[in-house]
């Protein structure tokens, strides 16, 4: 009896240690993405084909071409796509064979996810709700008709609009989205939320609808880009992962250490031990090989060398939401809007709505 009790105690002790250790671990969701403005410095068609690149180097057709190629090379790799104005232009040019491959990536392996999936990522301050519903409907209907109900987006993804309206949150909730993520909120509000660990919350967006307007809402950390030093795009100049010790510039240990540091820094400001790293930015992945080759290596080496502290894996915002949901946490709530948007003292992005957006960028 005595020895049995001792064994039980020992097992209990081991179990407790295991639970504590796994609770301390940081889980890093790698979210490969591109942010493709549906018209900005060039026209939509110029952006699609990569025309007039002297104005801005950007060609969305190459992003979709190379991402689809790269996803097939490793079933762990994921990608999210947002702006249906570009996706539809691309889809219309594909052969039946490519369409079959893409359908499989979306509905079977689920490596490619449509997120948000309106025609564009609409502004929230100056737009009328009728126009928002129309533009969301056009994109979502395309997804439904070509990929079926299982491809329906579960996440609102407004990483670039200049402030956020409770009306938009309410529309996303009513569209059936499980969560809403964005980057641009007032700098004071963001600082407060970073120190309170309230970057994520439940937005009670509608006074009239009550709970039907509630939506889980998250503010992203590094704006919508990767942690400093980890942009592996043709548009960036960060160092690749150089992993042959016989060659000049071997840097695996240093890169793993700074990745772990970035993960710890971000996790210190969020309520759970799961965090998202947004690996991408404006018109990234024109040559998707460059991103994925380095991300594969990063995932491999961080897990191999620091896996007891930081676990990294390819993910999507919906998979991230599922992970948070399993943790059963309680979130703070938010009512009202995220307006006006100021990114610095005396830097309110409000004149943009009374002046011309074009002049703003000149
Ligand atoms: C864009 O390219 C077209 C075709 O070459 C040219 O006619 C047009 O002037 C260019 N636009 C700008 C703003 O450079
Ligand atoms: C995919 O992920 C699993 C689990 O982390 C890993 O064991 C496997 O090696 C990965 N596959 C590739 C091709 O990287
Ligand atoms: C989550 O919380 C609910 C309500 O407090 C509880 O009934 C349930 O058992 C919890 N689930 C887990 C996995 O902890």
TrEMBL record:
Signal peptide: 1-21
Domain spans labelled Glycoside hydrolase family 38 N-terminal: 28-342
One annotated GO biological process: mannose metabolic process
Keywords: Signal
Gene Ontology cellular component terms for the protein in this record: lysosome
Domain of life of the organism encoding this protein: Eukaryota
Gene Ontology MF terms: alpha-mannosidase activity
Descriptive protein name: Lysosomal alpha-mannosidase
Organism: Geodia barretti
